[in-house]
Predict the 3D structure of the following.
Amino acid sequence: MQGQSCREGAFLAPGKLYAVGPAVISTGGAVANTGIALHRLGLPVRLLGKVGSDLFGGAILEILRRHGRDLAESMIVSPGATTSYSVVINPPEVDRTFLHCPGANDTFCAADLADSHLDGCGILHFGYPPLMKRMYADGGRQLQRLLARAKRLRLTTSLDMAMPDPTSDAGRCDWPAILSRVLPQVDFFLPSLEETLQMLHWQTAASQASGDLLGKVADRLLGWGTAAVALKLGQNGLYLKTTRDERRLASCGAVPTDRSAWLGREMLAPCFRVKVAGTTGAGDCTIAGFLAALVKGFSPQRSVTAAVAVGACNVERPDASSGIISWPAVQRRIRKGWARLGIDLRLDGWRRDRRSGLWLGPTDGGESS
């Protein structure tokens, strides 16, 4: 169908037949998208998720093995369970629509992550608890328990969220209470602005975001105990704000290595300019770029730049991971003067750092670089 019809609201009108392109079947979610992206960037990763013993579960394990022979080794196969799946409807010039079945993900619990899974790891990244029933039930205590164990083992922890259906059990949860319980165990909190506003019950649309709103959202989350907040802003890039508490930053595990450079920072990295083929997995791949930069010991400025660079590579392909290139290739592309997009945000009191291409917030306590 034509893009004009989509914009006028005729998309998926009842009783109509639409000619579309071929279906693309790929893995999805934080485990596959962020994990495969890190693997393609050249970092060692261990993927842990739960699938059923059905056709989709077998397909997922086979796809993971194609990316890396050992990538499926830690995956859990739950006999008789249905594998989680999503149907992503991604028409031209229209935001994606998701039809989601949680399946085996609803049974994932803290005990599924054994200490042996964490041996030799530096960062535990956990994604999408709103789509995992046991992670949000009982006030998020299973999620708190899982992350607290990782912290006791001196790992750095990061957490990504997902947008729950407002009419579902997850959508009706007291997310402020859950986040206030969980975030003291989260070093880097990496949600989108849109899902965060919904969870905080703030009656503001993400499309009406401003620098002032970003700062207020981040301050609320930092106040609940996380060390750093990185809000994904879609085409407006990635916003980062970090704690001013030296002791909290020191408790983050192995990263960041230069903690003084991360103390009291506030910045926004605009997206890089690319021809967009699809946005599936863009947020997960942005997180992969951010985590890779942390492992490499990058400054916050270079970390958010790497994050949006990897996210930009992702959207050049319609699927969730094939656009990701090697880490050295990403850095070369940045160094060659990759053009950035403008941003559609009101940033009163902010300043543009011409050298890095970043916007630095009014509370930023670091030096330009």
Residues 279 and 348 are 29 Å apart (CA to CA). The longest helix spans residues 300-315. Residues 125-360 form a domain with the UDP-N-acetylmuramoyl-L-alanine:D-glutamate ligase fold (CATH 3.40.1190.20).
